Amino acid sequence: MKITEADVVVPASVPNEQRETYIKNYLLATRNTGRLMLFAGDQKAEHLNDDFAGEADIGKIPDDDGDPEHLFRIAHQAEIGVFATQFGLIARYGPSYRDIPYLVKMNSKTHLDKGTERDPRSLALASFDDVLRLQKNGLAVLGIGCTVYPGSEHEAEMLAQAGQLFAKAHEHGMIAVLWSYPRGRGVKNDKDPHLVAGAAGIGAVLGADFVKVKQPKQGDVSDPALLKEAIRAAGRTKIVCEGGSSTKIDTFLRRLYDQIHVAGVSGNATGRNIHQKSLTDAVRMANAISAITVGDKDVAFALQVAEGKQSFRVV
User: Fold this and answer.
1) Which among 38, 98, 175, 230 would be 20 to 30 A from 81, CA to CA?
2) For the chain, what is the domain count?
């Protein structure tokens, strides 16, 4: 599914003199498809070292993953749309990986406070001027991302900050991606389909180009069709689904295919299911995900890519 410049809907928040830049960044990030394959590398703050050493849900995490540069090596070699991580990591490793398309994750928090004592609060770690400095130093920064926690007692502060940062991003022709996760003491079920749809609608309210949400569940059922309400609620803001914790490759790829090609979401944001592997396997997995997301390939083809029996390049 290829799109052209004429297919890109440019928000009115983008100045006329930045329209071409916005369209270029949008097409680069989506590999000329309108779908986003976002490789998420923001867990160094969010989950500390739990995601990078020790045991994962499917076994021991390879030693490769303990080094932050593992994320950049994957992004450099794999067929991704954009690599999302924090300003400090991009500033430190970006000069060695200038070909990677970056999305700066503006805010983060750790998982040490489980939300039982106080509601989550995630504020910016860098300013928008810092993002522009990365661009001026020759890095391919295509956009920014922010997390908000609807339902937190601090939601107003996070929503205001994200909205202002997204307006700045559009002012400079960049794309904006929202992580929208209902969370707080008042949130009883963060995967309730109706609540996930509400979280998706927040993306539209803040002017995001894409909004990342959790796969909703109805009771014990996790049916991709449950995403339909969220897709409607987000309107012209496109939905991408989180990858979640590491799971069996075939299970992950089948779920991804159904989310995109059955439910109709516009991409994925995957971290652990890629980087909790050796470099070779991580690159193969990223390419398998891209095969489904932007290559319109089926699960059988993607599995062959993940197993190293088939190759995939975005053309």
Assistant:
1) 230
2) 1
